[in-house]
Amino acid sequence: MTEAEALENEQHKSSNGDVPPEATREDVFDHTYKEKEGPKPPVVIVWRNVILMSLLHISALYGIFLIPSASSLTLLWSTLCFFISALGITAGAHRLWSHRSYKASLPLRVFLGIANTMAFQNDIYEWARDHRVHHKYSETDADPHNAVRGFFFAHIGWLLVRKHPDVIEKGRKLELNDLLSDKVVMFQRKYYKPSVLLMCFFIPTIVPWYMWGESLLVSYFVPALLRYTLVLNATWLVNSAAHMWGNKPYDKNINPRENKFVTFSAIGEGFHNYHHTFPYDYATSEFGCKLNLTTCFIDFMCFLGLAKDCKRVSHELVLARVQRTGDGSHRSG
């Protein structure tokens, strides 16, 4: 056994990274899963979703043409709504509720729950469940957005068709008591639809119109529809582009890559080879706040006393993994 392998064994080596005893193991890749042989089930298109997504993107395109007529305050408000929505996914549904990579106080969980509702990407419970399935069965039929099926499917196509039966079956078998016992998660799930209308569409539209006299047309198409569409696509790029293009400094045997464009657009979620190698690390990167606004936000919440117990991978363990399974492209710092 090499020195690197010995170090990993000492620090709770797993088949998909290194997970400490207190971390959830529902996001660790399951090598025992085997795809069923024989013909694949037919692809069933959900035409309602196709129509709605098409209309949304057409509306977002119209919103782009309205940007020159928007006031500077409206553009600033749109940017603020973008970051709040994105944090509801990255710091909330992803790093907090899917991976339990840090602990958040009740006020912070409430804020992240509201922010997640503004993002409108399914409620926290469903988002976290599907994301854990994605990690546990990555790039297989049980992966909700299996990147092996191509960029379009991984990006948006998975939302336009019925889920593969394996996704539903494996999702039902996950241990999700941590989500079920979280009152913020369950409250949001219970009142999700009216909350989405309020947080994703009504408030982003009304604030510019009421507070500084922006036209309702611009208020609706820029801070609401365009902002919402941009957040959606930034999140989807993590599933698509970050699983197809980039280097693999930590584990060359898996699909996820390090993708700088996704890192920028998804406020820190593009260090994806690292994240799938060490899924419990709250920073999703070995570089801390560098190019990672979500990590900066969590660190600031820790400074305010609203977050704590951030799980981290030691530098020695990262280097051990790089030496054992990396593709040779690793650069520290």
UniProtKB/TrEMBL annotation:
Region feature Disordered, mapped onto this chain: 1-24
Keywords: Endoplasmic reticulum, Fatty acid biosynthesis, Fatty acid metabolism, Iron, Lipid biosynthesis, Lipid metabolism, Membrane, Metal-binding, Oxidoreductase, Transmembrane, Transmembrane helix
One Pfam family recorded for the sequence: FA_desaturase
GO terms assigned for molecular function: iron ion binding; palmitoyl-CoA 9-desaturase activity; stearoyl-CoA 9-desaturase activity
Highest taxon listed in the record's lineage: Eukaryota
Keyword check for Endoplasmic reticulum: yes
The Fatty acid desaturase domain, residue ranges: 77-280
Main location (coarse class): endoplasmic reticulum
GO cellular component entries: endoplasmic reticulum membrane
Catalytic activity: octadecanoyl-CoA + 2 Fe(II)-[cytochrome b5] + O2 + 2 H(+) = (9Z)-octadecenoyl-CoA + 2 Fe(III)-[cytochrome b5] + 2 H2O
Keyword Disulfide bond applies: no
Compartments, record wording: Endoplasmic reticulum membrane
Bilayer-spanning residue ranges: 46-67, 73-93, 191-211, 217-238
Topological type in the membrane: Multi-pass membrane protein
InterPro entries: Acyl-CoA_DS, FA_desaturase_dom, FADS-1_CS
Cofactor list: Fe(2+)
GO biological process: monounsaturated fatty acid biosynthetic process; response to fatty acid; unsaturated fatty acid biosynthetic process
EC numbers on record: 1.14.19.1
Domain remarks: The histidine box domains are involved in binding the catalytic metal ions.
Protein family according to the UniProt entry: Belongs to the fatty acid desaturase type 1 family.
Designated name of the protein: stearoyl-CoA 9-desaturase
Protein's organism: Mastacembelus armatus (zig-zag eel)
Top-level taxonomy: Eukaryota, Metazoa, Chordata, Craniata, Vertebrata
